[in-house]
Amino acid sequence: MSIVIGCDIGSLASKAVIMKDNTILGFAIIKSKPKPQDSAKEVVETALSRAGLTFKDIAFCVGTGYGRAKIPFAHDSISEISCHGKAARWLVPTAKTEIDIGGQDCKIMKLDAEGKVLKFITNDKCASGTGRFLEVMARALGISLDDLGAHSAASRSPITLASACTVWAQADVIKHLNSGIPIEDISAGINNAMAARISILVNSIGIEPDVCITGGVAKNSGVVSALTKITGHKIILPRRADPQLAGAIGGALFAKERASGRA
After folding, report:
1. Distance, CA of 2 to CA of 253 (rounded, Å)
2. Which residue has the higher pLDDT, 222 or 128?
């Protein structure tokens, strides 16, 4: 079978996944550069190096993400909505609803049995339901983004943020921190606020189990736990691969179909 690549150029992070059959041979996640073509070159070269391959070994490459049109070596480009839907069913075969939370947008998708997106809604106008919100809050707390989930789990009395607006929420966080509120309780309040914002989108489109979560924010256990409580549904975190790779995985799956002539 052919070796293929999915390349997802996002606003904050760029991802690449190399696949053969249904096996991931290599992958990479990097911080996006100002020029999408530079991000694509670095992330694909990193993934190829880890897999012990060169681009000459690749039969087909599909680009996705906001920078997909500027990937010079991509054979085709496909929307991130389609790629995420495709990946969701590969990551969680029973998924009918996908929550994808990226750096600067949040997408809720309803899927059919093949991973085709039947309906979706996206929030890309406000940072409060995106990874950017958590990034700003973590900086205000003086902790790493990765620590927000761990701190949240130790909370006994989560704060309530007065505003969903990132600017005002940041001011709230600083006020609570200066008042001596434990970082654990502030972290939990931040994750709860994030989950509450996302649940508004989920409720507007309707939720149908099973529900999976993808994107970089899926790695924050505090947000996943809060979403489970607010929606009343178990939110499944994919274990087959890093959930942040979903778009690139979908691209690789489409690339496999293109390479075999099935699409």
Report:
1. 11
2. 222
pLDDT mean across residues, the chain: 94
> CA-CA distance, 13 to 29, in Å (whole number)?
7
* Alpha-carbon gap, residue 15 to 59, rounded angstroms: 18
Check residues 113 and 173 and name the one with the higher pLDDT: 173
Answer whether 187's CB lies under 8 Å from 151's CB: yes
pLDDT tens readout for residues 105-124? 899 999 998 889 999 999 86
Cα 165 to the center of its chain, rounded Å = 21
Closest CA to 26 of 15, 34, 16, 18: 18
**Report field, pTM of the whole predicted structure over 0.85:** yes
Closest CA to 227 of 205, 247, 207: 207
Measured CA to CA, the distance from residue 207 to residue 98 in angstroms comes to 9
Q: Quick one: which H or E segment has residue 20?
A: strand 13-20
Domain limits, the chain? 1-92+245-263, 94-237
Is the predicted pLDDT of residue 194 greater than 80, yes or no?
yes
> Which single residue is written with the structure tokens 């001596």?
180
Is the pLDDT higher at 197 or at 3? 3
User: Are 1-92+245-263 and 94-237 in the same CATH fold?
Assistant: yes
Integer Cα distance of 9 and 63 in angstroms? 8
Domain 1-92+245-263 in this protein, CATH class: alpha beta
E strand or H helix at 120: strand 117-123
Evaluate whether 187 touches 141 at the Cβ level (below 8 Å): yes
Task: Give the separation between CA 68 and CA 10, rounded to whole angstroms.
Answer: 9
Q: Which fold has domain 94-237?
A: Nucleotidyltransferase; domain 5 (3.30.420)
